[in-house]
Amino acid sequence: MSGKASTLGGHGGERTEHRTRTHGPERHTLLLIGKSTLAATLAWFIAADLLHAQSPAFAPFSAVLIMNVTVYQSIAQSLRYVAAVVTGVAVQAALGFLAGPDPVTFVLVAAIALTIGQWRALGAQRSQVATAAFFAFSTYVSATSNTERATQLGQIVLLVLIGCSVGLLVNVVLVPPLRYRSAEHGIRALAGALESLLADMGPAMRDGEFAEEHARGWRSRSNHAQALVTQARSGLRTAEESVPFNPRRLLPRHRGRTSFANYRAVLDALERAAYQLASLTRSLERWRGEEQDYSYRRFLRCYGSFLGSLEEIVRVLARLDESQLRDQAARLCELAEEMQEQRRTVTEQAERDGLPLGDPTRPYGVLVIEATRLTEEFQYTCDVLQTHVQGAAR
User: Fold this and answer.
1) Cβ distance 114 to 158 under 8 Å?
2) Among the listed ranges 90-94, 358-362, 376-380, which one has the minimum average pLDDT value?
3) 9 and 257 in contact (C-beta within 8 Å)?
4) Angle of CA points 392, 386, 241, to nearest 5°
5) For residue 242, what are the CA distances in angstroms to 56, 140, 146, 236, 248?
6) Is 325 helix (H, G, I), strand (E, B) or coil?
7) pTM recorded for the entire structure
8) Three-class SS string for 327-367?
9) pLDDT averaged over the chain?
10) pLDDT tens readout for residues 98-138
């Protein structure tokens, strides 16, 4: 996950060097605008100049509406959009031909279309059921015969299909993005936040120099790290959705890079670590001033050293790079052993000092429990990456 595109989800194959410069969101926005403009223009040309449709705007509107960052989402949204439009037009057609173009019919059309629009399966396109029904009613009223009405309603569906087809074609053919870096950036931001938090907590606890306001600040930063989990998961989901139906995945340099299982394993561990660090900082807020004597400070020094071992692991996770993954996985195994030793030291020190681990009003029990949980999470992550390296070597 360095400046060079890492591919933790890959399953072997030759790695192609990528440019160290990453493209910001502005490039993707400009690309999406350009593709939408081209799709809208082509759809308008087909609808207005070739078909001479009465309402050609349906085609470019549909082409732009289903244009999405990933091909997968474009296909998913186009299917939902077509289903919504066909449903809305069908409701109008059924009621219009049965009851005629009068206000009572419009009330029924609106009520039924809005009710169907609550169907969750249509997702973000649910409102298009009523929109299509209203446009269909307007077209139905303006027509002079039943034949013309049927033709115009069918033309609406045809234009929507043309617009969606053009939009999909443009999105597939014209630089469909593979968003590997979306997964990388989210995880790097989360790992960086945890690394910074641990870098502050470890020395402060080792020196026994922290007060309630420090713990309160740590808790605020741990909550921020938890918020970054949502962004990281969104980036990972975008990366996963950029692969299906994307022809670029067949290119030699992208083969074997279609799985994000290792990204997900790292993210899952960091998410649980963020949650457990939040619990730890809440416990530290309850730390009593009289507990800063020598015996408690020995426990604090041990715990600070344990957090320092976690910081080293998170630092490596924040800089994972496929080209260096073998060395980094070996380093993580070494750090995991050190982490395990530091965790045992924490537990043994708590027992030697006779700390009230079972007292829910004191922080010691929670600190020891969270140390165990954090150790398990990072050990599992190190094991996953080591297994990936061993599998790639076969």
Assistant:
1) no
2) 358-362
3) yes
4) 65
5) 31, 40, 45, 10, 10
6) helix
7) 0.60
8) HHHHHHHHHHHHHHHHHHHHHHHHHHHCCCCCCCCCCHHHH
9) 80
10) 888 888 999 999 999 999 999 988 988 989 999 999 999 98
